[in-house]
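name: query_chain
kind: protein
chains: 1
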Amino acid sequence: MKYDGSEIFDKDGYLVLNLLGEEWASWPKGTLKPSYRVSTCGRFVRIIGNGWQILNPQKQRTGQVTVSVNDNGKQVTKVLKNIVADVWVDNPNQLPNIRLKDESLPISSNNLEFYDFQSDRTEKALARKELIALVKTLSLVELKTLTYLAQQL
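structure:
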């Protein structure tokens, strides 16, 4: 079975079906002879000779999902969301960090976004200060009512 770039086969030669709307691209980007391909749905495969091997990501104790890749003859662990974002997510503002938009959904190109950790912390701190200022202006009765309502949620 010869690799022509249009289909993916597992190690036994069975065709791997694409998930709905799934697209594939080479990783690392710009490599003349890529060793890996990554999909918009977060699936990762290694090119072996004329075929493919689907790599199973591992969830680390930190919560990060990683894959092991060969980097110039050495096994290296890479964070899967970083790989997917590198290939599929635009970063016009050159923001340094990547996060899941919704932690309850799996890693995919439409569930990732770049962000600036420092700016994000600043925005949250300002929101906290605004909330504290609002709470200070409320009367004791209003606070008790809010506390009761919050407990009912």
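note: The chain has a mean pLDDT of 80.
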